[in-house]
Amino acid sequence: MKAYNGRTLLLEIVMVLVSLLFLAPFYFLFVNSVKPFGEIMSDAASWPKVFQWENYSKAWELTRFPEAFFNSFVITVLGVLLIALISCMAAYRMVRANTIFNQIFLLVLVAAMVVPFQTIMMPLIRVISELGLMNTKTGLIISYLGLSTPMAVFLFHGFVKSIPLEIEEAATVDGTTRIGVFFRIVLPMLKPMLMTVIVLNTLAIWNDYLLPSLILQQPSLRTIPLATFSFFSEYTKQWDLALPALVLGITPVVVFFLFLQRYIVEGIAAGSVKG
């Protein structure tokens, strides 16, 4: 029993040390966000001598943070909702109508997951330009929909298999339509995986810099990552303003993640066991 307790204590100490290692970047981010530029350059690891909160007000104004936040919020919410809804409906149909076409289509989606974004980046921008969707939130949302749907369908596909068909048949006998069966019976049972897809795609879209930088060229359409990157140029790097902007940008998504992170474990565990 003593040996077991000793191993447990050692494991807990190791886990605490690893947790502190992962939290170290947040420490550097915060303490340097309230330092003047010279102090950041001289000693980035030290505790601030004086907390310079004016950095946040300057970053708020220079990034036009409310506008950037609104752009990021609209793109993320609409993109995630479309990805989640279309993917779960597609996966449900592919499982219940297990035709050869649907099987091949699933293989195509799985194959698309391993294609690096850099290989399709230029063709994608060409298509968006030809459709007249450059410099529009719509073009960016459609791009996210096409890029993120394969993974979401794959996750939902394995989870839908765990739903007993008899429940749907009973609802159909009671007079429920196919659409009603999906939204009243199937969709509530998909909640763990649905929340997993929502959380993962929210983190990916909110923090993405590359795709918005290719599609959104107008300053009024800048998302938070684009607005933050404005503090970096070829010859100057305004760390005293960029770091507060980063804190402002990641705070909403960190709160969102902490609020819903338990669904990720539940969804992945349920999908791996039941699927």
Walkthrough of the structure:
The protein has 275 residues and is an all-alpha fold. It has helices spanning 2-33, 37-42, 54-62, 65-96, 100-113, 117-130, 137-160, 165-173, 178-189, 191-206, 210-215, 224-229, 239-274. The radius of gyration is 23 Å and the shape is globular. The two termini are 38 Å apart. The model has no long low-confidence stretch (mean pLDDT 86).
- Integer-rounded radius of gyration: 23 Å
Count the E strands.
Answer: 0
Q: For the terminal residues, how far apart are their CA atoms?
A: 38 Å
How many distinct helices?
13
Portion of residues within helices: over 70%
Shape: globular
Percent strand: under 5%
The main sheet comes to:
none
As residue ranges, the low-confidence spans are none
The H-and-E topology, N to C, reads as HHHHHHHHHHHHH
Tell me the quaternary state.
Answer: single chain
Q: What is the SS-derived class?
A: mainly alpha
Overall pLDDT metric:
86
